[in-house]
Amino acid sequence: MKKKNYSETQIVAILKQYEGGREAMDVCREYGISKATLFNWRKKYSGMEAAQLKELKALQDENRRLKQMYAELSLDYKLAKDIIEKKL
């Protein structure tokens, strides 16, 4: 069976249907997902709106860029330290 990929906004819409009173099995059957997937999504995205998702995505992207910058600077520092130690 082909794995379906849902975007975060689609996941939030699915969760809103579930939280709106629909049965978990009905929602799972309609979208072709398992109950475990639905509850994992609920744990991760519960109570979020589209604007909050955009902000979360932006923060995750910024965090990724900052980690990459730190790794590059750390490597540069280590190289510079090794060069200085060799000269002494």
Describe the structure.
- The termini are far apart.
- The chain folds into 2 domains: 1-48; 50-88.
- The protein has 4 helices and no strands.
- The protein has helices spanning 8-19, 24-31, 35-45, 50-87.
- α1 crosses α3.
- It has 88 residues and is mainly α.
- The mean pLDDT is 90.
- Helices cover 78% and strands 0% of the residues.
- The radius of gyration is 22 Å and the shape is elongated.
Average pLDDT over all residues: 90
Gyration radius, in Å: 22 Å
Largest sheet: none
Q: Which regions are unreliable across 5 or more consecutive residues at pLDDT < 50?
A: none
Q: Spell out the helices and strands N to C.
A: HHHH
> What's the N-to-C terminus distance?
64 Å
- Helical residues, percent: over 70%
The number of strands is: 0
Shape: elongated
Class by helix and strand content? Answer: mainly alpha
Number of domains: 2
Strand content: under 5%
The number of helical elements comes to: 4
What secondary-structure arrangement, pairings included, does this model have?
Layout: H1 8-19, H2 24-31, H3 35-45, H4 50-87
Helix pairs in contact: 1-3
